[in-house]
Amino acid sequence: MNNSQKIRTLSKVIVLGDSGVGKTSLMNQYAYKKFSQQYKATIGADFVTKELQIDDKLITLQIWDTAGQERFRSLGPAFYRGADCCVLVYDVNIHKTFDKLNNWHDEFLHQVTENKAREWCASRGNIPYFETSAKEGYNVDEAFLCVAKISLDNEHVQDIYFPGISETASEAEQQSRCAC
């Protein structure tokens, strides 16, 4: 089998963890076999690609690195969009970075789940997507308002005729009359 016949796959991987734990260093070592002692904080997000062959399949890993600082959290939705998996990174010398892995993991699951649902809706004709909470009342009115608007947009005014109903009704009326 030549290269043009091999199955190719793209997988988006995101690297998560607190600032300074070595996310960029890990990514650079894997992609370029380079390591620098000098610390330089990542600003925003960046990615590298690495192609691997596993059996007869070619997989391109698109590995995304992000700033661990709180001020860059607003990048979240765009950063997580389309992610297939994540690598959670902590510093073995700083225990609190390990404790924070649960937060990073939960954030990944929340973001990816929402994005997968949004992508599913978009791929099926831009079905509207709403995250709601019946308990808190969050987004419930908005979701049903959207349903109502779509219903109005799709409304077709037409006469509905059910053949045989009038005859059936008159027969029923006749049968219910007393013949005394």
General description of the model:
Residues 172-178 have low confidence and may be disordered. This protein has helices spanning 23-32, 76-80, 95-99, 101-123, 140-153, 165-176; strands at residues 7-16, 45-54, 57-66, 85-88. The chain has 6 helices and 4 strands; from the N terminus they run βαββαβαααα. With 180 residues, the chain is α/β, with parallel strands linked by helices. The termini are far apart. The chain has a single domain, classed as P-loop containing nucleotide triphosphate hydrolases (Rossmann fold, 3-Layer(aba) Sandwich), CATH 3.40.50.300. It is 38% helix and 19% strand.
Helix and strand topology:
Blueprint (H helix, E strand, L loop, with lengths): L6 E10 L6 H10 L12 E10 L2 E10 L9 H5 L4 E4 L6 H5 L1 H23 L16 H14 L11 H12 L4
Parallel strand pairs: 1-3, 1-4
Antiparallel strand pairs: 2-3
- Report the strand count: 4
Strand proportion, as a percent range, falls in 15-25%
> Mean of residue pLDDT?
77
Helix run count? 6
Radius of gyration: 29 Å
SSE succession: EHEEHEHHHH
Model regions low in confidence, pLDDT < 50 over at least 5 residues: 172-178
CATH class type: Alpha Beta
CATH topological fold name: Rossmann fold
DSSP helix fraction: 25-40%
Task: List key phrases describing it.
180 residues, alpha/beta, Rossmann fold, four-stranded mixed beta sheet, flat, disordered C terminus
